[in-house]
Amino acid sequence: MLNALNEQINEELNSMYIYMAMAADLDEMGFGGMAHWMRKQAQEEQVHAFKFQGYVKDRQGRVVFKAIPEPQTTWESPLEIFKAALAHEEYITGTIHKLVKLARELDDIATEVFLNYFVTEQVEEEDSAHEVVDALEKVGDSVGPLYQIDSWLRKRD
Ligand code: MG
Fold first, then answer.
1. Residue 32 Cα, ligand 1 centroid: separation in angstroms?
2. pTM of the full predicted structure?
3. Could you read off the pLDDT of 95-131 as tens digits, one per residue?
4. CA 151 to chain centre
5. Which helix (DSSP H) or strand (DSSP E) does residue 104 occupy?
6. 88: CA distance to ligand 1 center in Å?
7. Which residue ranges form the domains of the chain, and what is each CATH number?
8. From ligand 1's centre to the CA of 143, what distance in Å?
9. How far is the CA of 44 from the centre of ligand 1 (A)?
């Protein structure tokens, strides 16, 4: 179980790295609000990694960091970026569900309860990415509405 949790730390840090790369590309495209949203997302991933790290420590396990793959650096459009972010969150949901199943197999009740937070969190993560993908799909290439979305996403706390 602890090995699998260690792997999840790497997944969360990899997510952070991917979103930082997406933020950089959005900055490059001139959408500072979308880049801000994506940097907030990256910060959340760091928090997730810390939560897993703290839990492994609390269970007297050893935290082992692994290499983070080099992320993609450019995308076609903001829509392609947010679609990729949504697909990545769907992938992460799968990894969390696998952890829950493993905890159940091992009858590790404490870990299953710890993971509940992440099961709920993933529903929110997918929903917030979906919301942006839907909005970007509606406006297409219209510059005015794209900037409206940009100022909406700039408001993320
Ligand atoms: Mg995460």
1. 22
2. 0.95
3. 999 999 999 999 999 999 999 999 999 999 999 999 9
4. 21
5. helix 78-105
6. 10
7. 2-62+77-153 (1.20.1260.10)
8. 31
9. 7
